[in-house]
Amino acid sequence: MSHFESATPSSVVRVSLPSKPPFGYDIPIGRGLRHCAGEMIAAVHKPCRALLLTDDTVEVLYADDVTASLAKIGFSVVRHVVPHGEASKSAGTLFSLLEAMAKEHMTRSDLLIALGGGVVGDLGGFASAVYQRGIPFVQIPTTLLAMVDASVGGKTAIDLEAGKNLVGAFHQPSLVICDPDCLSTLPANVFSDGMAEVIKYAFINDKVLFEALLREVHDCMEEIIRLCVEDKRALVETDETDVGARQLLNLGHTVGHAIEACSDFTISHGSAVAEGMVIITRAAVKMGICEAKTLSSLVALLVKYGLPTECPFTAEQLYAVALSDKKRAGGTITLVVPFGVADSRLVTVPVDALEGYIRAGLAED
Ligand SMILES: NC(=O)c1ccc[n+]([C@@H]2O[C@H](COP(=O)([O-])OP(=O)(O)OC[C@H]3O[C@@H](n4cnc5c(N)ncnc54)[C@H](O)[C@@H]3O)[C@@H](O)[C@H]2O)c1
Ligand SMILES: [Zn+2]
Q1: Is 36 among the domain residues?
Q2: Shared-domain flag, residues 131 and 198
Q3: Residue-wise pLDDT tens digits, 238-278
């Protein structure tokens, strides 16, 4: 049963986590929901001090709407704004945020609300995981990537100079409020980045989503987001700590991470994942694992949503970097391989075999 009587989300996805109280949380999805944030949050947390964490771009666009809604219901809101961009997922930004929380005398009965993309969500999630050993937090994702991916699943992290997401915690939100109207202000390239993850879900196991993506998505983003959130929910519920089926979410990511690293992070995550999905799918075609039409369907969708399909690096360059990928375990590596549209499976191979996949995936003929 949904908590929300007067605010009207078009759908509510419930993430169940049986291992610890409160055993899960809701993800209401609906246009304009940011204006009802106060009411919705009050249904899961009594009015208190709320630190609203956002970045300098999102603050201008949406922080006033959320603040007004929270204030109306009796929350006392303190705003904390960080510069936009990945550089804010740093130890320095984290500690300034934690000091600000302490200066406000926030306690474990107060709340952090992360309003923004995956950067703000990961930073705010991690700060709330470690401040006083854990306080509640709510996510209001404003990018497509944050709505369909980063805000679901409870992974929080900051970066080190040695690499991305190296310090983090699993910390589940109390609520995730998803307002697709926020997507209207996203730059086209940031929207496309999110579409790479959407296409990923379709190729993992979602035929309905695949069919929807063949049509025009801009008018039905609520439904697209719902399908993706359901997909991630299902994988997260079966595998809360990322040891089994959840690894399917890495489709395109093993090679994608290598592409990002080879480009010194000038190629965006979404573009790198798009290129990574093409490489693994083309390799699967060459190895007789899937049909050529699976690859052409993938390439057509990526092009339709403004994503690149070819990467500028050689197999040697990519393999060298992929070898140091943190997802490698012992002498084997688990790859996510498409066996068809909406049918990807985990395949564990010796680490050396990865080079063969990359080589096969890069060659055009
Ligand atoms: N925790 C997870 O499970 C998980 C999963 C995937 C990605 N991530 C993390 O998410 C981060 C990437 O997230 P992202 O792509 O959302 O990046 P981001 O948070 O940097 O947002 C991208 C840009 O869009 C701007 N923006 C955000 N919302 C906007 C809006 N509605 N209108 C206009 N501009 C807006 C931001 O200011 C920023 O400049 C990475 O750090 C990645 O590691 C985490
Ligand atoms: Zn990703």
Answers
A1: yes
A2: no
A3: 866 666 788 999 999 999 999 999 999 999 999 999 999 99
